[in-house]
Amino acid sequence: MPFCQNCGMPQPDGATFCSNCGKPMVAVSNTPEPASNAAGSLSTVNDLVMMKKILSLREHYDFEDRDGNKLGQAEGNFFQFPARFVVKDATGSELMHVEGKVFSIRRQFTFYDATGQELGTIKRKIVKLVGEEYWVEKDGVEFMRIYGNFTEHDYQMTLNGTQVALVHKKWFAVRDQIGVSMTGDIDHRVAIGAVIVIEHIEVTEKENR
């Protein structure tokens, strides 16, 4: 049953004017929004749970919010070289994809949106006496640094020295679940792509050597 947008009174189907206040009708449904809309989306939710599943021929990650609502998934093929991942939202539509570079001195992957437009390229840097860190650049210009303990899923992403995303284990006791928190102004797709790449290089590749 439609409702009057002005006074809120219920109206018969097909009514053009409200029988209570006389205002022109703009139908407002009393049907609640679908749960998927209430839960948000992979590109907007700030606190994500990334769950790793190893299938026979694929590297698979599921994404949920902290209430357990599915936000999307990412999937790659163990036997594809260079590695490639496709990230989809909860409806199955492509949000982005990640492609590795065949010949590179440093390991690097490029992020693309669903239309094929480049979002950035992540590269691994070896730092003497410190360990490893990653940076993300676009058109040859660095705009994000990533550093911390990658194998323990404890690291941060910074823009101009300001933290914009944090990867951590503090919510979970389960080994293959990690938290991703967007703490600043960042394209969620770039952060999610970076986490997938780092997980692939630092954990999955080492486990399968």
Keywords for this entry:
2 helices, single chain, 209 residues, Porin, mainly beta, elongated
**How far is the N terminus from the C terminus?**
62 Å
Q: Largest beta sheet, briefly?
A: 12 strands, antiparallel, barrel
Provide the gyration radius in Å.
22 Å
CATH architecture: Beta Barrel
What is the domain total for the residues? 1
- The share of residues in helices is 10-25%
Instruction: Quote the CATH topology.
Output: Porin
List the topology elements.
Elements lengths: L34 H5 L7 E8 L3 E8 L4 E8 L6 E6 L4 E7 L7 E6 L4 E10 L3 E8 L2 E9 L4 E6 L2 E7 L8 E6 L5 H20 L2
Antiparallel strand pairs: 1-2, 1-12, 2-3, 3-4, 4-5, 5-6, 6-7, 7-8, 8-9, 9-10, 10-11, 11-12
Describe the structure.
The protein has two helices and twelve strands, in the order αββββββββββββα. The protein is mostly beta strands. The chain has a single domain (46-207), classed as Beta Barrel (Porin), CATH 2.40.160. Strands 1-2-3-4-5-6-7-8-9-10-11-12 form a twelve-stranded antiparallel barrel. A hairpin with a 4-residue loop joins β9 and β10 (154-159). The radius of gyration is 22 Å and the shape is elongated. Residues 27-38 have low confidence and may be disordered.
Quick gist of this model?
Helix content is 12%, strand content 43%. The chain is mainly β.
